[in-house]
Amino acid sequence: MSGFLPVDSLDSPRFVGLATFMRLPQAQTGDRLDAAILGLPSDSGSPFRTGARFGPQAVRAMSIMLRPINPYRDHVNVFERLAIADAGDASVVPGYLEDSFERLEASVDQLVTGGVVPLSIGGDHSVSLPALRAVARRRGPLSLVHFDAHSDTWRTYFGGRKYSAGTPFRRGAEEGIIDPASSIQLGMRGSLFRADDVSQSVDLGFQVLTTDEMLELGSAGVAAQVAERVGDRPVYLTFDLDFVDPAGAPGVQTPEAGGPTPREALAFLRALAPMNLAGADVVEVNPLFDGPGQVTALLGATVALEILSLLAVRRAGGPDE
């Protein structure tokens, strides 16, 4: 059993104590961890709404509603299988994206160097690039499993600028830290800037399933395609909350109508076979636009727990394996 257990909410009320993810212990230097939660509170790459810098706080605040046993994964108790702690937030330089990238990458690198799988909470989607750089430095080129309404493979923004929330996965492919031939993007939909906004990912080598294709395939069919695509390669899983329809997740950076419901989104995640997770993130929760009850932040926390469950059953080699 892991020694890094959440505070028991049957013993101590949820409103007591510091707001760490799911009331986990705070990570300390020298801790031997399997995974760690890390906030990446930067929204300097957002081309439209700002406010996702407050996403890590919002997700942590709502994560206290979650419980440690996952009934969708053979009732695995994630925190008895894995040693997990909350590593706090990386530092950033607000308004200076590339300077922030250096600090974000260094924080993720510190975890990965210690053999810890980072589960980062953003932040806009630009934060995935420094996280990918840190993970790939230790694990080699990564297969990307990318849930999102948008491809984030645009060439440039605003007069040739290479870095934004809309460009991280083109940069990752160009830098050789993502292997597009074993990667898949899930959930593309909506109106476009240009006719090749989605096909540009295919041109880079990614497999793409639109929202319509996912809903037609169903969760089992999508999971089969993901498993076939990534195999047993090291995987980086990134989940943008705008994958979900804004009726169910209004507090995001770039809402896109016509997406899966929260129930459908979780079904897609819960159908995934355990994979060789090297790192992951949950991004673009924007509490400034969230609905009553902070429903988007709660969904973001739930997505994060589902990702930890994937890691737990893979590490244990249990029935889901």
Your description of this structure?
By secondary structure, the protein is α/β, with parallel strands linked by helices. It has a single domain (21-316), classed as Ureohydrolase domain (Arginase, Chain A, 3-Layer(aba) Sandwich). It has nine helices and ten strands. It has helices at 55-63, 78-81, 97-113, 128-139, 168-174, 199-204, 211-230, 262-271, 295-316; strands at 35-40, 69-70, 76-77, 84-89, 117-122, 143-147, 184-188, 207-210, 235-240, 277-283. The strands form two sheets. The chain has an eight-stranded parallel beta sheet with strand order 4-1-5-10-9-6-7-8, with helices on both faces. Strand 6, helix 5 (168-174) and strand 7 (184-188) form a beta-alpha-beta unit. The longest helix is centred in the C-terminal third of the chain and has 22 residues, at 295-316. The chain is globular and about 55 Å long.
The CATH architecture term is 3-Layer(aba) Sandwich
Tally of separate domains: 1
Rg (CA only)? 18 Å
CATH homology-level superfamily: Ureohydrolase domain
Helix percentage range: 25-40%
Derived structural class: alpha/beta
* Largest sheet entry: 8 strands, parallel
Uncertain runs are: none
User: Class in CATH?
Assistant: Alpha Beta
Number of strands: 10
Number of helices: 9
Strand content: 15-25%
Give the overall shape. Answer: globular
How many angstroms does the end-to-end distance come to?
20 Å
Overall pLDDT = 94
Examine the coordinates and then state which fold CATH places here, giving the name of the CATH topology. Answer: Arginase, Chain A
**What is the N-to-C succession of helices and strands?**
EHEEHEHEHEHEHEHEHEH
Give, in spatial order, the strands making up the sheet with the most strands. Answer: 4-1-5-10-9-6-7-8
